[in-house]
TrEMBL record:
<keyword id="KW-0119">Carbohydrate metabolism</keyword>
<comment type="similarity">
    <text>Belongs to the HAD-like hydrolase superfamily. CbbY/CbbZ/Gph/YieH family.</text>
</comment>
<dbReference type="InterPro" id="IPR010976">
    <property type="entry name" value="B-phosphoglucomutase_hydrolase"/>
</dbReference>
<dbReference type="InterPro" id="IPR036412">
    <property type="entry name" value="HAD-like_sf"/>
</dbReference>
<dbReference type="InterPro" id="IPR023214">
    <property type="entry name" value="HAD_sf"/>
</dbReference>
<dbReference type="InterPro" id="IPR010972">
    <property type="entry name" value="Beta-PGM"/>
</dbReference>
<feature type="binding site">
    <location>
        <position position="29"/>
    </location>
    <ligand>
        <name>substrate</name>
    </ligand>
</feature>
<feature type="site" description="Important for catalytic activity and assists the phosphoryl transfer reaction to Asp8 by balancing charge and orienting the reacting groups">
    <location>
        <position position="151"/>
    </location>
</feature>
<feature type="binding site">
    <location>
        <position position="176"/>
    </location>
    <ligand>
        <name>Mg(2+)</name>
    </ligand>
</feature>
<feature type="binding site">
    <location>
        <position position="151"/>
    </location>
    <ligand>
        <name>substrate</name>
    </ligand>
</feature>
<protein>
    <recommendedName>
        <fullName>Beta-phosphoglucomutase</fullName>
        <ecNumber>5.4.2.6</ecNumber>
    </recommendedName>
</protein>
<feature type="binding site">
    <location>
        <position position="56"/>
    </location>
    <ligand>
        <name>substrate</name>
    </ligand>
</feature>
<dbReference type="InterPro" id="IPR051600">
    <property type="entry name" value="Beta-PGM-like"/>
</dbReference>
<feature type="binding site">
    <location>
        <begin position="120"/>
        <end position="124"/>
    </location>
    <ligand>
        <name>substrate</name>
    </ligand>
</feature>
<dbReference type="GO" id="GO:0008801">
    <property type="term" value="F:beta-phosphoglucomutase activity"/>
</dbReference>
<keyword id="KW-0460">Magnesium</keyword>
<dbReference type="Pfam" id="PF00702">
    <property type="entry name" value="Hydrolase"/>
</dbReference>
Length: 224
């Protein structure tokens, strides 16, 4: 693992790290899944966390054995339906929805001259950063149109490092989803997994909560 002193940039997942919009994603997918007779489960929820819109829908259809029952057009309609429900939920999002510890961590990073960028699988990321009033910290958000494959492929984290003009070994990536941590690892960036360490055992460093994100904690947990 690269030396902590080499680190110059932090690549952030959005949902589940900066804000809890993952809850809105799961609620809106659940409504769509149940509307077509697919049973929701915590296993399905974990499998789609961090996947992009169409990959999530495909995983949901597969879990119900319905992967071949919908045309591309029908699938698009289902994905649009989910996004409509999601966007309605987003209306009430505001800076109080920023997860615990994140504001302090962002301020600490800025004070210590680290660069930062959003590496989210969501097309709604710019809208959410605006609603959370975090544009000042995150003028940079990876544009999904610029990448070929979404998480768990490395593209989004590779693009994020490139946009900061940094090598991958100068960056840390932070994500709360299995596919997100896999994406960070595939990019050869040091990964921090936030959540259940058993679920995210593939991460280089594990914290159970965003509250644990401080430079001191990261340094202390480096390559143990
Ligand atoms: C990720 C979420 O951040 O964004 C996923 O964790 C979601 O659950 C994905 O499917 C895509 O989001 P959107 O807003 O583009 O539908
Ligand atoms: Mg996430």
């Amino acid at each position: 693992m690269t030396d902590f002193s080499n680190i110059k940039g932090v690549l952030f997942d959005l949902n589940g790290i900066i804000t809890d919009s993952w809850l809105y994603h799961s609620k809106s997918w659940r409504q769509v899944a149940e509307s077509i007779g697919i049973q929701w489960s915590s296993k399905l929820e974990e499998a789609i966390k961090g996947r992009d819109r169409i990959d999530s829908l495909n995983a949901i259809l597969k879990s119900g054995g319905m992967e071949n029952q919908y045309s591309e057009q029908e699938k698009e309609a289902l994905a649009d339906k989910k996004n409509d429900i999601y966007q309605q939920m987003l209306e009430i999002m505001n800076p109080n929805d920023i997860l615990p510890g994140i504001h302090d961590f962002l301020a600490e990073l800025r004070q210590n001259d680290y660069q930062m960028i959003i590496a989210s699988a969501s097309a709604n990321a710019p809208k959410e950063i605006k609603k959370l009033d975090l544009e000042d910290y995150f003028p940079l958000i990876v544009d999904l149109k610029e990448i070929k494959h979404n998480k768990p492929a490395p593209d989004v984290y590779l693009k994020a490092a490139e946009m900061l003009n940094l090598d991958v070994d100068q960056c840390i990536g932070i994500d709360d989803g299995i596919v997100g941590v896999e994406s960070i690892n595939a990019a050869n960036v040091v990964s921090i997994g936030i959540g259940d360490p058993k679920v995210l055992s593939m991460a280089d460093i594990n914290f159970t909560s965003t509250k644990d994100l401080t430079l001191t904690n990261i340094r202390q947990n480096w390559s143990k």
